[in-house]
């Protein structure tokens, strides 16, 4: 009889992480395989075959596959956007140039900020006559002849990716739909995104940018998903295949090609969800997550098991006003390159050696020392990765660090320590952006670290930020892939409806909520969820009249409820409370300051069964903690050492103190209730945790390492 196996696969810059769940037994199997940047589908398929081999299973046993991908993210971060065309309302051809006057955080003032290049050059913008007002009334008719001329202009110049954003199309999309039909007729090769389907909100600049980002990633995401789907069908014919979305849900691969912008934070979102679930089950309500990979580190906030959401996100230089988990990414992954600035100072990242050629210690042609090389030189990671599958060239790493140290006039140990110190502060600054700048007191938060390199600087981050401690989940290198098995199907729908609270048309609000719910229900029907399993969540964006930006609050009754005066007042009361929590004041009860409703939102959710986290067995009797085996040869080989034998190596935690002999513990042999103090190094198949002097570790009932300062 066929088994029921669900697989989650997260493709990162260096490794592809795989987690498989046997739904009948509840067993979880994890593994990793090197990513293949030239064709990420190769690493994906290798990961599927590898985990099925470990489970002694076949493709016929697979019931579903969920995937977190960085295809869209990397395309935008690297600025590798193909030639784009833009069609907008006549008279608004410089909409992208005007943009917004806000300068991004971190530049101090506008003198130091360089405005990024437009996503579409000015000479690739065409305008078409016709005009709607903000209520959806047609002021001027659609200019069919002008639309035909614009479509032919793009066709004649070979521009095949086009975004369309007409003024006030969120209120009535007839003109945009007509423009798309003209493009289909006159330029059938074109890939087209229209703003009324991508983002039905007002603010034409953000709506235009989000639409253009959607168009920019649509060809590459479509090719990537089609390639994987075809090869996956060869292993497991007809198996449901889903892609992680930025909002913390998944969507079938067939639908993702029509909504590619929803995947721009696919991988980081899965990690935040997985870490949130683990932390909540471990009893931690306030958690900062730190997902360290080979190229970057992603950080987010999790409150009561749920990552915080935003619609004000950006990817690279491009704003993307879609619901997404509030993640900040910094170029501080294991492959981030250490270099010398023109002023002669040490810098780390954001350039990365990636998976190919990778750090110097990979011995694959890398030329510059990286964060991983610094860890190797200081002894904080072993001379191999993946439990011995990938040997590391320690001498190459040491030579690279020594050469960099000579250029800087430093001792090699201080140089390596300096690389890690800069990396730690880069990560700390990212954590501050999602916490301190959101009004949160980080001293109340635990740090959940995961990813292959996420835990390497954990103790230093506790010192820098004065955190409560660190929780390191089991199999931390695979938490993002695990998160993919915990994700519901989720679709977001929005409609702008600007109105003051005192004159709100309650019937119109009810009608809009019902229409958005119908759209969400149709999407869940298409995903195969019966109506009795559908869940809906309503939220509303509000502001005080005269403010420029909104605050989102949940509507009462979840996803249902009749919109009457009491319902509307409850929404307004929730807004006052949230505004006070965010900014320290509100105008509740002040008749001179009216509340304004701006956007109505409905999220449709198709729930799935989540894997259970099993308790780790306790140690039957008190004895010395198990050390890591000195050899990782086959268990049946005669040279396999006794696991009870003490293992240690020289590790440098502080450049002033130098190297100290440090015990090395093998994590799979730890048991619930075990405790030990630093200095120590905990190793496992996909990750390493250096425990600095002055820190203590406790293994909790779920097998998490809970790291805190010693009293």
Report on the architecture of this protein:
The protein is an alpha+beta fold and 711 residues long. The protein is built from 16 helices and 37 strands. The strands form ten sheets. Strands 13, 14, 15, 20, 25, 26, 33, 36 and 37 form a nine-stranded mixed β-sheet that branches. The protein has a six-stranded mixed β-sheet with strand order 3-2-1-4-11-12. It has a four-stranded parallel β-sheet with strand order 6-5-9-10. It is globular, with a radius of gyration of 27 Å. The model is unreliable at 628-646 (pLDDT under 50).
- Beginning-to-end CA distance, first to last residue: 55 Å
Count of DSSP strands? 37
Which whole number gives the mean pLDDT? Answer: 87
Low-confidence runs of at least 5 consecutive residues: 628-646
Taken from the alpha-carbon principal axes, the silhouette is globular
Which radius of gyration do the C-alpha atoms yield?
Answer: 27 Å
Please summarize the sheet with the most strands: 9 strands, mixed
């Amino acid at each position: 009889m066929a088994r029921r196996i669900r697989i989650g696969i997260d493709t990162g810059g260096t490794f592809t992480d795989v987690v498989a769940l046997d739904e009948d037994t509840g067993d979880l199997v994890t593994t990793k395989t090197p990513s293949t940047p030239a064709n990420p589908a190769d690493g994906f398929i290798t990961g599927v075959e590898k985990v099925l081999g470990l489970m002694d299973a076949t493709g016929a046993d697979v019931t579903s596959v969920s995937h977190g991908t960085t295809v869209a993210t990397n395309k935008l971060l690297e600025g590798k956007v193909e030639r784009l065309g833009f069609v907008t309302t006549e008279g608004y051809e410089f909409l992208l140039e005007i943009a917004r006057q806000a300068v991004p955080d971190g530049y101090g003032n506008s003198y130091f900020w360089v405005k990024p290049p437009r996503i579409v050059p000015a000479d690739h913008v065409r305008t078409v006559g016709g005009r709607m007002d903000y209520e959806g009334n047609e002021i001027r008719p659609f200019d069919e002849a002008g639309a035909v001329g614009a479509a032919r202009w793009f066709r004649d110049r070979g521009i095949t990716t086009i975004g369309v954003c007409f003024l006030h199309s969120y209120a009535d999309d007839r003109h945009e739909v007509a423009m798309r039909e003209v493009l289909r007729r006159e330029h059938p090769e074109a890939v087209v995104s229209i703003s009324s389907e991508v983002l039905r909100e007002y603010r034409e600049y953000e709506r235009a940018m989000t639409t253009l980002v959607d168009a920019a990633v649509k060809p590459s995401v479509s090719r990537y998903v089609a390639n994987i789907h075809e090869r996956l069908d060869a292993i497991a014919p007809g198996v449901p295949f889903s892609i992680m979305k930025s909002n913390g849900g998944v969507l079938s691969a067939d639908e993702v090609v029509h909504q590619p912008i929803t995947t721009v934070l696919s991988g980081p979102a899965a990690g935040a969800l997985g870490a949130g679930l683990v932390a909540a089950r471990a009893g931690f309500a306030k958690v900062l997550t730190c997902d360290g990979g080979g190229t970057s580190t992603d950080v987010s906030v999790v409150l009561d098991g749920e990552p915080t959401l935003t619609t004000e996100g950006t990817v690279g230089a491009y704003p993307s006003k879609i619901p997404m988990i509030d993640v900040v990414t910094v170029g501080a992954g294991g492959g981030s390159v250490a270099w010398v600035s023109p002023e002669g100072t040490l810098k780390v990242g954001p350039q990365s050696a990636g998976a190919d050629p990778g750090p110097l210690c990979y011995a694959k042609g890398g030329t510059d020392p990286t964060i991983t090389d610094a860890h190797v030189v200081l002894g904080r990671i072993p001379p191999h990765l993946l439990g011995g599958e990938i040997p590391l060239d320690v001498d190459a790493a040491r030579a690279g660090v020594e050469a960099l140290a000579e250029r800087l006039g430093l001792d090699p140990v201080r140089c390596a320590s300096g690389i890690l110190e800069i990396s730690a502060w880069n990560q700390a600054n990212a954590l501050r952006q999602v916490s301190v700048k959101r009004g949160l007191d980080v001293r109340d938060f635990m740090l959940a670290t995961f990813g292959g390199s996420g835990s390497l600087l954990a103790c230093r981050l506790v010192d820098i930020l004065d955190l409560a401690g660190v929780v390191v989940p089991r199999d931390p290198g695979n938490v993002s892939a695990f998160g993919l098995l915990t994700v519901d199907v989720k679709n977001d729908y929005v409609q702008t409806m600007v109105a003051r609270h005192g004159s709100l048309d309650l019937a119109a609000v009810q009608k809009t909520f019902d229409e958005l719910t119908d759209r969400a229900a149709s999407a869940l029907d298409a995903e195969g969820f019966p109506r009795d399993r559908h869940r809906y969540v309503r939220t509303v964006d509000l502001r005080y009249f005269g403010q420029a930006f909104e605050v989102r609050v949940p509507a009462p009754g979840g996803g249902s409820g009749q919109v009457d005066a009491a319902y509307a007042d409850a929404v307004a009361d929730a807004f006052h409370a949230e505004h006070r929590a965010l900014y320290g004041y509100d105008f509740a009860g002040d008749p001179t300051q009216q509340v304004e409703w701006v956007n109505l939102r409905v999220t449709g959710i198709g729930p799935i069964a989540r894997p259970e986290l099993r308790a780790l067995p306790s140690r039957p009797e008190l004895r010395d903690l198990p050390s890591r085996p000195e050899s990782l040869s086959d268990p049946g080989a005669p040279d396999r050492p006794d696991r009870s034998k003490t293992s240690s190596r020289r590790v440098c935690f502080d450049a002033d103190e130098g190297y100290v002999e440090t015990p090395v513990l093998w994590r799979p042999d730890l048991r619930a209730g075990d405790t030990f103090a630093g200095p120590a190094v905990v190793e496992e198949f996909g990750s390493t945790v250096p425990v600095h002097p002055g820190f203590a570790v406790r293994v909790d009932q779920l097998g998490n390492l809970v790291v805190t300062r010693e009293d």
